[in-house]
Amino acid sequence: MGGEWIESSPEKKDLGVLVDKKKDMTWQCALAAQKAKHILGYINRSMASRSRERILPPYSALVRPHLESCVQLWNPQHRKDMDLLEWVHRTATKVVREMEHLSCEERLRELGLSSLEKRRLQGDFTAAFQYLKGAYKKAGEGLFTRACSDRTRGSSFYLKEGRFGQDVRKKIVTVRVVRHWTRSPRGAVAAPSLVVFQARLDGALSNLV
User: Fold this and answer.
1) The model's pTM
2) What is the pLDDT of residues 69-89, one digit of tens each?
C-alpha cells in the first residue's frame, strides 16, 4: 500500500482480546492465564498471612477479573483452554492455609467459590433473562428468537435454537446459551425478577462446582 509492504499477523488484539485468524480463543486463554498466574504469584509472595481473609479479597479483585474479562466475547471453545483457566482458579485455593489436604472441589466449596465454567454459564443465563424481561429494549432487539410450538405455547420464556454450519458461530453468547436455557426448569426461566431467577438458577446449577 503506497509502495510499502503491509505486515501480516497471525493474531490481532482488539479491546484487550486476542483473536487469531481462525477466530480461535486459545491464545486469549493462554494470555489471560499468564497474567492471572503472575499476579497470583505476587500475592502469594507478598502476603504475610495465608488466611482466607487475606487471600480471597485480592484474588477476587486482581486475579479472577483477568480470567473473566470480556469473557462473553471470548468464551473458551476447547476443553484444554477451559482446564487451563480452571487450573489457575483452583491453584489460588491452594494458597490458602490449611486447604492443601482437600480436593479441588472441596476447597472451592469450603471457600464459597464456584468454578469458572459455572460463573460463565450464570452470566449467560443472566443476560438472556434480562433480554426476555425487556431490560435491553431496542439495544437487545433480535438477539434471541423465541420458540413457538405446541409445547411452548403460552410461554414467552423459551428460546429457539438455531442451526449453524460453523463451530465458531455456536460459541457466540446468543447461541450457546439457548441449548442450556431450553433444558432449564420452567420455574427458573419464568421467575418474576432477576433476584428470584438467580436464586433458582443457582439451585439448578448446583451440580456444577
Assistant:
1) 0.76
2) 888 778 888 899 999 999 999
